[in-house]
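Adenosine deaminase
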Amino acid sequence: MTLAGIELHVHLDGAIRVQTILDVAKRRGIDLRAHTVEEMTRRIALEEPATLTVFLDKFNQYMHVVAGDREAIKRIAYEFVENEAKEGVIYVEVRYCPHLLANSGVEPIPWNHDEGDLSPDEVVRLVNQGLREGERAFSIKARSILCCMRHMPSWSMEIVELCKKYQHDGVVGIDLAGDESLNCEANPDHRRAYEEAERCGIHRTVHAGEVGPASVVKEAVEVLKAERIGHGYRTLEDQNLYRKLLKLNMHFEMCPLSSKLTGACHPDFTKHPIITFKNDKANYSLNTDDPLVLNSTLQHDYSIAQKYMGFTEEEFKRVNICSAQSSFLPEKEKQELLLKLYEAYGMIQSTAF
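Tokens:
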């Protein structure tokens, strides 16, 4: 099913073209022991349900190729927008950790010697350039969210400062990703970063309740003041919390195929938590998460929802309207986005002359 759509939860470093990885590796003299798209796809793609740890390990197969490389970072941002446009997406919020793409905090690697690692600030500027050029070329709107990492609390204050610096130049929010067992009591830098984000009007989302318990979702909402929850499937384990968040109209960024292959949810799609959210008319979106590692597309996630979860065309429309309403765009741009959706869905007459 192809509808004008919105995507709110997709990782830039999990949405790179395989051909681009091969091209950059060749230019930089990196031996990947794979020479074709098919060979590299077999190494990267997760074929069967696994654990989140196995899923995250797939990134080690290729991240060293693009990390710290100016040309590659700008290229993957530009191509990402092209890919989204081909999927029928009219607005996307793509997230990434600037430090990981800058190659910060990892051992120097020989092929980086001549170019040198980038600063996280340089990474944000390069991604912004690539997204802007993609917007102009493919006539969609793309914004970014900067990710803090639970295992690297020392990065969080720098990341919120980057959010502040680029708040009116492409960056619309902050995220916290990584091992959910690392809570904010043990890592107060995350809490301080989110307090600063709230003080400065920076929008906030948090990965929570994907594989971690409902208590991680509660912490995200009550301590980090999250406006959206990344995944959030385990919220259903605490019915009091779930009902409270339904009343608050909390937005959940859900990823059907990802949740199966990472082992976050039951492998039988007909038993997926998304069905409960759908039946309760919750505020949520459907997203790809990491289409490169999942060897998938947004349309594939939609087809899963339609085939196994009882989604109708009307529900897809409702979900995308919820997504637009819960986007991190400024209010004026949000209303313009909603108008585009209403026109595309035949809910109002076109205002075009």
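Confidence is low (pLDDT under 50) at residues 105-115.
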